[in-house]
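Protocol step 4 of 5: obtain the predicted structure for the target chain.
Materials: sequence only (see below). No template structures provided, no constraints applied. The aim of this step is simply to have a reference model before the mutagenesis design in step 5. Sequence pasted as it appears in the construct record:
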Amino acid sequence: MISGQGADLALKILAAPLSTKALNLRPPEGVVMVMIGYGDILGAQTPITWSDDYKIGVEKIDREHEELFNAYGKFIESINSNNAPSSITSTLEIFEDYILYHFSNEESLMLSIGYPDLFSHKLEHLDFRVSVTRFRTAITQGDDINHDFVKFFGHWLISHIMVMDKRISEFIKNSSTA
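Step 4 output (structure tokens):
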């Protein structure tokens, strides 16, 4: 687990698709590069498979995270099936709605336990929601699908859970032993 000053730097995540080209990238000093093991197969997006490795140890949040993966997977499947833009937008809206539901629940949990990093965590959520909304708006207005953005969503989910959300679990564990 990253702690101290390094923890702030870990929040700056350079999400890159896994490829030979990506492996040659060097992140700016102080930025942690996270490589997630999924990528393009002939241009197709690969859904993220839920794993117990992503559990943070808070049952309700873990169930919601798994559902987020499912909603993201349906969005990816819609893109890969070359569905009409309205169908893709519809699956994105379902993903977006579940994001709002989950973030609200997670933020309520953090408030109820007196989580000290609530504000910065909420800012992370807000930034992601804005990114998803902008992406949906662009698609709705007829823009082509930016596959790098789609991959970013998956990278962000995993990175956020593994860094930010795991801190909630650690706080709960440390609070119960104090």
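Step 4 remarks: The first strand starts at residue 13 and ends at 15. The chain has a mean pLDDT of 78.
Proceed to step 5.
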